[in-house]
């Protein structure tokens, strides 16, 4: 059976890695999920390093408005960050399962669809706040040479709503990301870092298709009602998803906040650009290389986001039904076989 959306009234304070209450306000009326009308505008997510000043103005204003909402508004910036914390730091139990078994959306086949829907609702809130139904989140294009640095709009000015102080000071632009980051900086020329990154992308996205006839090597291991959490991550979730998180977080803060820990990652606005690119990789992989699971336990897994219930994985498979797409940019790693 599929993992079911949590019961908000049983949400608990998180204790691992630290005490934090990530539970959403639970007095909300929850509506059934509906796909956006086919007539609604297509929102095209741009590469973060290619946006113009007008885009940055709209985006930073939307995030600013989100930060200014009352603290107990479920659309508030911190409340939205806490959505991630609650689904990742054991705030929810699976409904109807004994003994008590937490819901964990990482390290399994829930990773891609859960984050897709999380971004979908987050993006919709931002769009509503600025009254612009065409607004789309940017993606951090770390899979292409020109996108491998932290996008500069997140780094300067430090007064911007999308700046975050809790990041690795040595990884500010123009430093290139190391998609295989293991905690130690390599001192290698940029050209070599670029080649390493392209080879890493090839290995994680393309080789996984060549090596396996089932989608689980890329998408992650099955995780069903009653399963223990963390049955196993797919290739992309491990690298570069996890590695970019840790590369971005501040190594001098206790839990590598913000990006380096589940409970705090959503507090850094760059999280959503990182996950846009993770989501873009899923869509490229599905369209060009792989096939998604057809297992009903995957398709019928459901989640709850403000303010719609029972967001099924099956509703998330087709991004054009969700009325968004990605700016078409090069994917130079596709042929970067090491
Ligand atoms: Cu839910 Cu990038 O982690």
Structural account:
- This protein has 338 residues and is mostly helical.
- The chain has one domain (8-24, 36-335): Di-copper center containing domain from catechol oxidase (di-copper center containing domain from catechol oxidase), CATH 1.10.1280.10.
- Helices cover 35% and strands 5% of the residues.
- It has helices at 53-68, 77-88, 111-129, 190-211, 216-219, 235-248, 262-265, 270-289, 296-299, 313-316; strands at 31-32, 43-45, 302-305, 308-312, 324-326.
- The protein has a 3-stranded mixed β-sheet. The chain has a two-stranded parallel sheet with strand order 2-5.
- Helix 3 packs across helix 8 (270-289).
- The chain is globular, with a radius of gyration of 19 Å.
- The protein starts with 30 loop residues before the first strand and ends in a 12-residue tail after the last strand.
- 43% of the residues are buried.
- The mean pLDDT is 94.
- CU-O-CU linkage is lined by residues 84, 88, 106, 115, 241, 245, 265, 275.
Please write out the topology.
Blueprint: E1 31-32, E2 43-45, H1 53-68, H2 77-88, H3 111-129, H4 190-211, H5 216-219, H6 235-248, H7 262-265, H8 270-289, H9 296-299, E3 302-305, E4 308-312, H10 313-316, E5 324-326
Helix pairs in contact: 1-3, 3-8, 4-6, 6-8
The structure holds CU-O-CU linkage (C2O).
CU-O-CU linkage is lined by residues 84, 88, 106, 115, 241, 245, 265, 275.
Give structural attributes.
338 residues, mainly alpha, two-stranded parallel ribbon, globular, binds CU-O-CU linkage, catechol oxidase activity, metal ion binding, disulfide bond, metal-binding
